[in-house]
Specification:
8 strands, single chain, 10 helices, two-stranded parallel sheet, about 260 residues, globular, 6-stranded mixed sheet
């Protein structure tokens, strides 16, 4: 892990993923972040996402140092090493066919190498940030890391966020996902001027494809994102945890404790 990010996570903080987990199911969030309840298993999409992320990080780091694409073998070897680390240990991985899952990950990495927009220059990789959450009585920070900041072939500064996804995001999610608002504020505090924010989606279709979408948030949406963080933290501090029964229950690694 990025040592700066690790140090920031040692202080009281919150992240985009933890807030999203509360919004999906407060009770699962409670088990994961605030108790010693052990998960019954680990989800294969999380292992795959981490392994693919490590491979893409290797791409950007090589490009930053050498000014050109690495050989595809570097990405595939990085993915395989990360995958091996990810599937061992406890709790066990839950998968119907772990070999097929690994093959899909390899295909995603290859698709990225074949299809992803190429940077003209890579400025930074895994750049950690801490954003002040004004109004939080405990002084917690919003902590995260930006996958890459690049100069694209048109000479623009582009903040890149890579995402693996089973399907395309609906338009309403692209218009309102608050991660964009958080990152937009973070890069402004990092003195990255006039950036374009871009999601590069690695879609796990029958034939994986890469889709790049540029996103933007208004000042009102930035304020709304911070309000969501503050309200979720207030609910957590008040120990407001309840189950949300629905799609997320299928395969939930805390269902044994929930029921």
């Amino acid at each position: 892990m990025n040592p700066v990010l690790a140090a920031l996570r040692d202080a009281p903080h919150v992240s985009v993923s933890s807030v999203k987990s509360y919004l999906i199911c407060p009770q699962k969030h409670h088990f994961r972040y605030h108790t010693d309840v052990e998960a019954s298993h680990r989800s294969i999409p999380l292992v795959m996402g981490k392994s693919v992320h490590d491979a893409l990080e290797a791409f950007y780091l090589f490009h930053k140092e050498h000014g050109d694409d690495p050989p595809v073998e570097l990405l595939l070897d990085t993915f395989s090493s990360s995958w091996r680390r990810g599937v061992i240990g406890d709790p066990p991985i839950k998968s119907d066919d772990i070999g097929a899952d690994k093959d899909l990950g390899v295909t995603l990495v290859q698709a990225f190498y074949d299809q992803a927009p190429r940077p003209n220059q890579v400025i930074s990789v895994e750049d950690a940030f801490a954003l002040d959450l004004e109004g939080d009585p405990q002084g917690r920070l919003i902590v995260g890391a930006i996958d890459a900041v690049v100069i694209d072939t048109a000479g623009r500064v582009v903040v890149v966020e890579n995402k693996t996804a089973a399907r395309r995001w609906p338009a309403v999610q692209l218009q309102h996902d608050f991660q964009v608002a958080v990152y937009q504020q973070a890069v402004r505090e990092m003195d990255i001027l006039d950036p374009v924010l871009r999601f590069d989606f690695l879609l796990k279709l029958k034939k994986p494809v890469i889709e790049s979408v540029e996103v933007h948030r208004t000042p009102l949406q930035e304020q709304e994102a911070l309000r969501i963080f503050r309200q979720v933290l207030r609910a957590v501090d008040e120990e407001i945890f309840f189950p949300v029964r629905g799609w997320a229950c299928s395969g939930c690694e805390y269902s044994h404790a929930c029921s």
